[in-house]
Amino acid sequence: MNNHQEFFQKEVPQLLKGLKANVKGKWGSMSVDQMLDHLHAGTLLMMSNKSGDLVVEEEKLPRYKAFLMSDKGFMEGAQKPKMYLDFEKTDFDAFEIAKEMLAAIVLEFDKTTRENEDFWSFHPSFGQLNAEETRQLQFKHIRHHFQQFGLL
């Protein structure tokens, strides 16, 4: 089992069990409920085969992808892409259900990206991504918000 697979299958569900409804983020204005919805939406978006417009110049993509594939994390307060807005909607009735739904979609994402050799996603800052690049993006993204809310 590789690091991403272990993170998605074991660590995410385990860390979510320790997440409390009243925890405040170490940075940003997002509430813990909004963070759960944001990560759920982001995971769905990565599996949607939805394309969009780049927000960076195409010639900069190699440098951006090099950052993506590096061990460097996202900076605190990074702006989310506008394409998230079409996916985010808080429709979970309870905090515990939101945690369970996030864990479930992350497991589905893990399986889908490992088993579909033609998998691709799109991100406005990184362009079209293959399965490995998408898994790295989600790994960094989830870790970023888990750090924000004190889970890591």
Short description:
51% of the residues lie in helices and 5% in strands. It has five helices and two strands; from the N terminus they run ααααββα.
Characterization of the model:
With 152 residues, the chain is mainly α. The protein has a single domain, classed as Four Helix Bundle (Hemerythrin (Met), subunit A), CATH 1.20.120. Helix content is 51%, strand content 5%. It has 5 helices and 2 strands. The protein has helices at 3-17, 32-46, 61-68, 95-115, 131-148; strands at residues 120-123, 127-130. The chain has a two-stranded antiparallel ribbon with strand order 1-2. Strand 1 (120-123) and strand 2 form a beta hairpin. Helix 2 packs antiparallel against helix 5 (131-148). The chain starts with a helix and ends with a helix. The mean pLDDT is 89.
Tally of structural domains: 1
Runs with pLDDT <50, length 5+? none
Distance between the termini: 21 Å
Principal-axis shape equals globular
Note the main sheet: 2 strands, antiparallel
**What is the second-level CATH architecture?**
Up-down Bundle
Q: Could you name the key traits of this structure?
A:
single chain; 152 residues; mainly alpha; Four Helix Bundle (Hemerythrin (Met), subunit A); two-stranded antiparallel ribbon; 5 helices
Task: Set out the fold topology.
Blueprint: H1 3-17, H2 32-46, H3 61-68, H4 95-115, E1 120-123, E2 127-130, H5 131-148
Antiparallel strand pairs: 1-2
Helix pairs in contact: 1-4, 1-5, 2-4, 2-5
